[in-house]
Amino acid sequence: MSRPQTQEQAVDAEGDSSLYRNDEEGTQSSHRMLGFSDALLSIIATVMILPVTHTEISPEQQFDKSIQKLLATRIAVYLMTFLIVTVAWAAHTRLFQVVGKIDDTLALLNLACMMTITLLPYTFSLMVTFPDVPLGIFLFCMCVIAIGSVQALIVGYAFHFPHLLNPQIQYSTHRALSRQHVLRLVLRGPALCFVAAVFSLFFFPMVSLRSSGAVSN
């Protein structure tokens, strides 16, 4: 009686291992993708200083209040966008401390996230060139919201397929709490940018109306 039972247990174990191998097929470590993302983010953070350094000031031009205001605006916008990129990098690094392996879907989601991040210097140049126009701020906020949304999709996908998670998270009894913590970290910046986008749509038209009314008077 003991021999058939041992064979059944062996069959069950073989079935479980085959299912595990099927889940593992097509996956690889996330270290290479994380290195690629870190390199891309460092390039983006470096490129964003270019609109500030390429401010054209002729030798005959006096360093008056208008030039000081222009430089102060560009530096302030640069510091803000650099902070946002740093927050996105920290969230991305924390995310892939939880995700230990990637498949094709996760790789495509990460590429979509990186593609959206590469648009940040363009929106930064719009904010620097046209500081009184809300379009630059609005597009910048939309990019940050899109980045957070894609990162949230990565979190949901990874936790839906636990074999992609870090082994410590995969076998943890508090996996749901870990997912909530990572989602809060990822969506914190986009939530603030959503408020800023709504504020820019309503605040700038009011300022322009007030300024036009003052000029007419």
UniProtKB/TrEMBL annotation:
Subcellular location: Membrane
Domain of life the protein comes from: Eukaryota
One family name in Pfam for this protein: TMEM175
GO CC annotation, single: membrane
Protein name: Endosomal/lysosomal proton channel TMEM175
Membrane topology: Multi-pass membrane protein
Source organism (scientific name): Nannospalax galili (Northern Israeli blind subterranean mole rat)
Region feature (Disordered): 1-26
Keywords assigned: Ion channel, Ion transport, Membrane, Potassium, Potassium channel, Potassium transport, Transmembrane, Transmembrane helix, Transport
Chief place where the protein resides: membrane
The keyword Iron-sulfur is assigned to this record: no
Transmembrane segments: 34-55, 75-96, 108-130, 136-159, 185-207
Gene (UniProt): Tmem175
Keyword Transmembrane helix among record annotations: yes
Protein family per UniProt: Belongs to the TMEM175 family.
Catalytic activity annotation: H(+)(in) = H(+)(out); K(+)(in) = K(+)(out)
InterPro entries xrefs: TMEM175-like
GO MF: potassium channel activity; proton channel activity
